[in-house]
Specification:
Layout: H1 3-21, H2 34-45, H3 50-63, H4 68-75, H5 81-92, H6 111-125, H7 170-181, H8 186-197, H9 204-212, H10 217-227, H11 247-266, H12 279-290, H13 295-309, H14 314-323, H15 327-337, H16 357-370
Helix pairs in contact: 2-3, 3-5, 5-6, 9-10, 10-11, 12-14, 13-15, 14-15, 15-16
Length: 371
Amino acid sequence: MPRKFVRIILLLTLYYQYSLLAQVSSPCNMPLNHFAFEQKRREIANQPNAIQQLRLAKQLVRTNCLTANQVKEIALLFQDDLSRLDFAKEAYHTVFDKQNFYEVYNSFLYFSNVFILHDYVQMQRGSAVSPLPTPTTPNSPVPTLNFPALNYPNYFSYSGNRNCSTPLSESEFMLLAQPIATLNGDNARITAINRSLNQYCWAVSQLMRLATLLDLEINRLNLLKQAYVRCFDIDNYNQAVQVFSNTIHQQDLQNFIRQQQNLYNLNPNNHPLNCSVSASDFAQMISTLNEQSFENTRVNMMKQLFSTYKCFTIAQIAEFMKILSFDDNRLEVAKAGYDFCIEKKNYFMLANSLVYSDNRNKLIIFLSEKK
């Protein structure tokens, strides 16, 4: 049967099934108006990479109701079905007209992903609607990566030491890993990995899988050493030795981890050496802080961010202070951030971010007492 007719049959079936599903009322009372939606859509489209697009799109549907057609328009901004599927699952919960959700299916390249989304929706609804018909024409497979069968540590319930706050989701990780895997040779793959390594927070399991994309074990070792400061679940780092068959490389990584742990314990500010808060992480912090209605909430959140991320520059702390309206709160944040700043010798420069001379003097006195 021609592919065109298969799609028509599929969509007609979906229309009928979603008419049944729509009998359950939607929690949304009003979708985003056209003007506001177009602003959000352009903002998502202008993001520098696919991961930032996906994060912003998810944030949009978590805080707004969209129509099914609006969800489809956002889904079409993504370059791959994996991102579309991840976004569509998130969007389903707040879509205004669930009876029209089948419109979203038109954004997918592969029928297999349509089936996955349909099964997800049925599971959310607890529906007994019959399954979709299987197309009689073959589909191109969804791109996948087959990583070695290692004992990858689970980070979802991790509560130990960490060098960053929130690791990439599995879908975000696959967005990065898939194009890297298509490159020829270790040199090209290392270059691609290095472009992302310091921008994101990684789980050990993700770094292990990245390492296995490299053929030479010495390159895997160098990658794992470089990535340590951007790792979420550092207490699981010893499990990364599984990517080596050579015992010399295994011992080298274990010695490196012990050295880092000793430095971590000796560091009075309790943050790893050469650490930093990436531009993408910091932009997300600013966005979240700006969403808070009360200044006290912002101050408390900033303090929590200091203790979680640990590695702020003076410029980043100054940006936090700019968000605040009251000078006393700016002073409080400046004091709270000192132990988590990697540029302490120039910390006095934050006095320029304070309005009143009395508060500037208080900061200078505070700094003199810290020495």
